[in-house]
Design brief:
heterodimer; A: 5-stranded antiparallel β-sheet; B: about 110 residues; mainly beta; 7-stranded mixed β-sheet; 4-stranded antiparallel β-sheet
Chain lengths: ~110, ~110
């Protein structure tokens, strides 16, 4: 039930772009994206609810392909503040109750 | 400001002892969750509660116990039955509506010595 994230880690220079992928073997109701700095609380970025839905937040956006049970997070023109570990959380159609299964995370490091 | 408070931030436990981690929220959220985070394994659900006096086991509930006597509070007890308790523990809350985001606390790092 735990989604699979890729890549596990990525290093970028400031201004470069990155894509983080999240896929599930189960039918998804929604996909959440969070960012966590080391030793801190994960911070909510966005939720995608409908198949094909795309959302954006500053230079961070995401898409959700409901048929493929996949979501991708796009970080464009990366900034140093984007460094952290990104987690996707998936809500399954079958479980209800807003329970999430989290991926193992993608560690993003942005260097000057 | 509304949020979730976890305490303590760091906790050391001797083998064979029970310890309780505190989680308090003032967001008026009905649902609360406990997750365990280990390096390379992401977040795994221990217990969750959607209403006072009711809670459900998650994927890794063995060796843990919880209570939900108040809406604001969801303490987690790590018992001596938990064989490998050293980890980072995160508490979260949300409203009980599908497709809504979680608010996380800043975590408690438990180390068994």
């Amino acid at each position: 039930q735990q989604p699979v994230q890729s890549p596990q880690a990525v290093i970028l220079r400031e201004g470069e772009d990155a894509v983080i992928n999240c896929s599930s073997s189960k039918a998804l109701y929604s996909v959440h994206w969070y960012r966590q700095k080391h030793g801190e609380a994960p911070i909510f970025l966005m939720i995608l609810l409908k198949g094909g839905e795309q959302k954006g937040h500053d230079k961070i956006s995401a898409s959700f392909n409901e048929k493929k049970q996949q979501s991708s997070l796009y970080l464009t023109a990366s900034q140093l503040s984007y460094s952290g570990t990104y987690f996707c959380g998936t809500e399954l159609h079958q479980t209800g109750a807003n329970n999430l299964f989290f991926g193992t995370g993608t560690r993003l490091t942005v260097i000057p | 400001d509304g949020g979730i408070t976890q305490s303590p931030k760091y906790l050391f436990r001797k083998e064979g002892q029970n310890v309780t981690l505190s989680c308090e929220q003032n967001l008026n959220h009905d649902a609360m969750y406990w997750y365990r985070q280990d390096p390379g394994q992401g977040l795994r659900l221990i217990y969750y509660s959607q209403i006072v006096n009711d809670f459900q086991k998650g994927d890794i509930a063995e060796g843990y116990s919880v209570s939900r006597e108040k809406k604001e509070s969801f303490p987690l007890t790590v018992t001596s039955a938990q064989k490998n308790p050293t980890a980072f523990y995160l508490c979260a809350s949300s409203i009980v509506v599908r497709g809504t985001g979680y608010t996380f606390g800043s975590g408690t790092r438990l180390t068994v010595v």
